[in-house]
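Human: You know discrete backbone vocabularies at least as well as I do. Show me how you would write down a chain together with its backbone fold. No explanation is needed for now; the record alone will do.

Assistant:
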Amino acid sequence: MKTIIIDGNNLLHKIRHIKEMHSYDKAGAAFALRDFVRSRYKAKANIIIVFDGHGNNEGKSVIYSGSVTADTIIREKIEQAKNSRGLVIVSSDAGITDLARVCGCEIIKSENFAKSLTEDAKSPANNKNVNELFEKPDRVSKKEVEEFKKYFS
């Protein structure tokens, strides 16, 4: 199974509804991006989304870089991979894609990945885009429940 490593901030700015959400709710946009990607690739690959700054890390699947950049974390993951040919790097950052290319990783530009996500989001019912629909999440983690309680209790 492949591992997809995503430059989170880079990708979220390529998806209209998530970019709009990011302007007023950065944490919500990160959750939305995570759920959007998972809904398309859950069974096909391990997914790691790396964001700049501080936030709630979710094990190995959502990582906030803290005091270093997301690019630094992504570079470390590429360099430390036992099989870099099994990595798919989603970024439009030349520094990251150049390293990924040298290490034999598959590279997908963020805009192309975003396009494939939104094209895959077409619903057979009325050919509506899933971005425009409100769906219940597959499941909510205990961490998310606690976060909701913190804000809404």
About this structure: The chain has one domain: 2-152. The mean pLDDT is 82. The two ends are 41 Å apart (CA to CA).
